Amino acid sequence: MSGDEILLDAEERMEKAIAVLKQALAGIRTGRANPGLVDSLKVEVYGSLVPIKQLATVGAPEPNQIVIRPFDPNTIKEIEKAIQSSDLGFNPQSDGRLIRVNVPPLSMEVRRKMVARVRELLEEAKVAIRNIRRDANKAADQAEKDKELSEDERDDTKEQVQDLTKTYESQAEELAKAREKEVLET
Questions:
Q1: Higher pLDDT, 128 or 96
Q2: What is the pTM of this model?
Q3: Which residues pair with 57 in a beta bridge?
Q4: Which of 93, 139, 160, 177 is the most buried (most CB within 10 A)?
């Protein structure tokens, strides 16, 4: 494996780690209603678990309300059941055509828990990025052993992997800081 291939692989995997973090952060409640809060919920319909966003359009027309408009009105009961059984603490209300979910304001204690969760997710992302760095460094060492890279090329590749690691870790920190700020805003 060449140094460029190692770097490209590491960069792609780090991008995926950031994407996973973004998705996880979208599911964290802030003081405002956000479609991301229910997007990832799975609903049992047609004999399998399906994400809500594949069954309905989800929007937040008001800062404290989420509106779910199912494509098939027959799935309303199942969607309601999925929301009620989730750990979000929401109470959905249906009028037969759409579901309204009122998002209650967060207490300071709940906000602190959310910030702690954001920090956990950040740490998980950083660990994933560092594991990718470790794998890339191992690949560089192996490529040098296999005479695919010279010692200098290996060292240069490792240096570039470290730069990538710093870049993606700081990206993850910025995402987490922004989400923390949103959670703490009233």
A1: 128
A2: 0.71
A3: 69
A4: 139
Task: Read off the tokens for 122.
Answer: 């950040």
Convert the pLDDT of each residue in 95-126 to its tens digit: 888 999 888 877 888 888 889 999 999 999 99
Q: Which two tokens stand for residue 127?
A: 């660990």
Q: What pLDDT, on the 0 to 100 scale, is given for residue 186? A: 55
- State the Cα–Cα distance between residues 54 and 70, nearest whole angstrom: 9
Structure tokens at 14: 């780090």
The token pair at 95 is: 């009028």
Q: Which of 131, 98, 156 is nearest to 10 (CA)?
A: 131
Close Cβ partners of 172 (under 8 Å, ≥ 6 residues apart):
17, 18, 21, 122, 125, 126, 129
| Chain length of the chain | 186
Q: Which among 116, 102, 109, 122 is positioned nearest to 37, based on CA atoms?
A: 102
Phi, psi of 65 (to 5 degrees): -145, 140
pLDDT for residue 123: 96
Query: Which amino acid is residue 21, in one-letter code?
Result: L
